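Deviation from plan, reported transparently: calcium ion complex.
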Amino acid sequence: APEAQKEVKSDEPKLPSWNEGENKNAILDFVEKTTTVGSSDFVPEKDRIAVFDNDGCLWSEQPFYFQLAYAIDYVKKEAPNHPEWNDSPVLKSAIDGDINGILSKGEHGIIEVVMASHTGMTAEEFSQNVKDWLATAKHPETGMAYNQMIYQPMVELLSYLRANGFKTFIVSGGGIDFLRVWAEEAYGIPPYQVIGSSIKAQYEEVDGKKAIVKTPELNFIDDKEGKPVGIHQHIGMRPIIAAGNSDGDYQMLEYTTQGSGPRLGILIHHTDSEREFAYDSLSPIGNLKKGLIDGPSLGWVIVDMAKDWSQVYPK
Amino acid sequence: APEAQKEVKSDEPKLPSWNEGENKNAILDFVEKTTTVGSSDFVPEKDRIAVFDNDGCLWSEQPFYFQLAYAIDYVKKEAPNHPEWNDSPVLKSAIDGDINGILSKGEHGIIEVVMASHTGMTAEEFSQNVKDWLATAKHPETGMAYNQMIYQPMVELLSYLRANGFKTFIVSGGGIDFLRVWAEEAYGIPPYQVIGSSIKAQYEEVDGKKAIVKTPELNFIDDKEGKPVGIHQHIGMRPIIAAGNSDGDYQMLEYTTQGSGPRLGILIHHTDSEREFAYDSLSPIGNLKKGLIDGPSLGWVIVDMAKDWSQVYPK
Ligand SMILES: [Ca+2]
Ligand SMILES: [Ca+2]
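Because the crystal trials were delayed, the predicted structure below was used instead.
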């Protein structure tokens, strides 16, 4: 198939919520050189693959992952139908709204709450539950709807890339089915361009019709070295742009930027305690240490949220 | 995001390699009614998902799957570097070109040859090997390059659907990485819209750079009830069009056509022994029995290759 090599240009200001400076310029320059026919760095449209982490990269993740807030709210709401949940310390913590009781069990605590809230139902039922929750749930600190706490500068970047022939994908440690419910409306990214952690699914008859049922067994963890593997399995190509915000994205940025030809790695550094949250190497959520140390010498763009963004959430 | 509801129309003849008749009409009518704004069967562009089996649906699969021909050719070529392969009856059969010796071991025979030929290398090396093979290998009966043995009427259908706002995906029992090498050139389907069976992959350092290495462990079998599961994992939506040619596609067509709203199931029946191959319920490759029995009452379009197609392969 002939490669579409057309340039998409527009008179609108580019990335309006990004402040002028070397980081904004690095992004604009990269897009310019990879999409200009005749440029030595020109990349055919079919190879313009851009991958984005979600939590802390496209939307907020403090004081803890929003998907975990969903899981806890679901367990609280459904607890009267599941008296057996009181026998589990982790689920009892969820019912009592004791987030530390869950997090103190580490990854296993999170997985147990996720299994209780994400499985034993059809994929359609799960999607509807998430939709219903998003319509009413509010963030405990900002009072905003969770899907309003997306980063306007990143939404602009996604849109700008697509206007320049890039395909944009989410590559998240979070749950693939949770993200797919709202990623298209929030980011313009359709369900089939969402990659994430997943549980197993089965094809079964439910109420006389065949459906996909979510079962309580881990299928894939899309984090750290899992991210390049997930990219391989879903996309089958090495991206040329990768953006993340934690050391869980290190391998994804490494995989992306070690490819030949022009490559762009972006790390979002949470430096804005006034408009969002400030955290990095000491935070259990979105821990970023190695990326900050190695990133600059690897040519990665380290975005300083407080300095580089004129706006955080959509107005 | 607002739904793109524009209709794509053109003055070119539609599906020129399809003979006039009720099957061609059923396909054209379906596309017309689902893409006409104001039609009670109108489907928003974002929901226009169409899935296609590959072997025997988009290209030929006789006298045995072309991917198996690749695997055997690879084992023959590499045998001098792997004296240990002679200790395996299956691999010895491959080295001797004894296809029946492989098939007599059933699925395990095929898997052993696939593991020997598809693993222990990076994803990039594998892709290059497949590319090199396709450039020179010839089908034993037709003498054609394998990737010339694609079905012109199906290539037209894929293109017609995309021109009408559908996203086209491959959902194959064959190997996902094998397909991705050539599906874009053959069908206009990019790597990230290919779903298939897969082996596990690891993120590792190879020659000083990080790469995806294909490892000898099954990851997913995309066949029968695996097809709806694979669709769920990769696409995250129930398709509205599904096409296949064997009972391995039964669940995919069932899953697709049991959804609410307009749905189209298509089965390609191999009836043309002169221009292609004629086979169905007695063939070990592409076995089709239940689909032929149930399909008509389920409203599935049963394509009669000899009658419905004016041309099989591209000119
Ligand atoms: Ca993150
Ligand atoms: Ca088939």
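Residues B 53, 55-57, 244-246, 286 surround calcium ion (ligand 2) (CB under 6 Å). We consider this an acceptable substitute for the interim report.
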